[in-house]
Design goal:
Shape: globular
Radius of gyration: 19 Å
Strand order of the largest sheet: 12-11-6-5-17-18
Order of helices and strands: HEEEEHHHHEEEEEEEEEEEEEHE
Number of helices: 6
Length: about 300
């Protein structure tokens, strides 16, 4: 969706030699960033070198010459730098609760942000390990996805106990890897309730609980739902920009379609890096179909 030009080789070398750039070993984001830039870092490998990752799964800044000096950001001991929690996130991925327990981060992650706070939560447990159950937001998930020429909308459904939406947000990743919007939710959602997010260009939708100018996703943009910094559901495959401009096979694709979650689905999928095939959990309808927004499985 968004185009990020690549710097010429000489410019890249200049950045590396002291123009305020930092290096990242991630395969899902670029290898250069400018001082103070915020970028996505969902997997443990995204938080290496001198860049630090916050609890929402974003780089907090480029901190050239500060923090751990090893290529793995503190390696097995974790270190004390904010990026030293990589080890904690790695071991956190296998923990049932997303890596926040004894195994997840606190014993291996050191004292950094990745260790005791986010080790295995938003980044380590859910995205990389895929074993997180979503924590307190258990029953909340994406239930409808509208992608048309002008209409863009998302519906959330709560199949579990009442959820505090003030702790939840939806992040959109252009071309599946670069953050271009984070939408903060608000209020509470009771069991069996829906919450509808619409773009400001979406016409004819009477059930919008939140209207935002930032919800302008296309078929190749990944969407991730978080609550309490834990990933609880997603649409698309994070880190993989589909060559066709969408995920799936006609007529079950994320471009120019309305997708509705099958009624048999009662929880979200936190494994953001797994292959995404809409035909498995979604029913497909024509683009710009707003007729069912706010009425999941009624």
């Amino acid at each position: 969706m968004l185009v990020f030009p690549r710097a010429p080789l000489l410019f890249a070398l200049a950045l590396l030699l002291g123009a305020g750039a930092c290096s990242s070993s991630s395969k899902t984001v670029g290898t250069q960033c400018t001082e103070g830039e915020v970028r996505a870092c969902l997997t443990p490998d995204d938080c290496k070198g001198t860049q630090s990752c916050d609890t929402s799964g974003h780089y907090t800044a480029c901190e050239c010459g500060v923090g751990g000096s090893s290529g793995v950001g503190g390696s097995s001991a974790g270190g004390t730098s904010s990026s030293g929690g990589s080890a904690g996130q790695s071991s956190g991925g296998s923990s049932t609760s997303g890596g926040s327990g004894t195994t997840g981060g606190s014993s291996s992650g050191g004292n950094g942000v990745g260790g005791s706070t986010s080790g295995g939560s938003s980044a380590g447990g859910s995205s990389a390990g895929g074993s997180s159950s979503g924590g307190s937001a258990g029953g909340l998930f994406f239930s409808e996805y509208v992608e048309g020429q002008a209409n863009k909308a998302l519906e959330l459904y709560n199949a579990g106990p009442t959820v505090d939406l003030d702790k939840c947000s939806v992040t959109a990743y252009a071309d599946a890897a670069n953050v271009f919007a984070t939408i903060q939710l608000s209020g509470t959602l009771a069991q069996g309730g829906t919450y509808v997010i619409c773009s400001d260009t979406t016409g004819g939708a009477l059930n919008c609980d939140l209207t935002s100018t930032e919800i302008q996703f296309n078929g190749d943009d990944a969407l991730i739902l978080r609550c309490d910094t834990k990933i609880v559901d997603h649409i698309g495959q994070y880190g993989l920009d589909p060559q066709n401009g969408y995920w799936g096979t006609e007529p079950y694709t994320t471009a120019d379609h309305t997708l509705r979650r099958k009624c048999s689905i009662q929880s979200g999928d936190p494994n953001t890096t797994a292959a995404f095939d809409p035909a498995i959990e979604w029913d497909s309808f024509t683009a710009d179909d707003l007729s069912d927004l706010g009425k999941h499985c009624q």
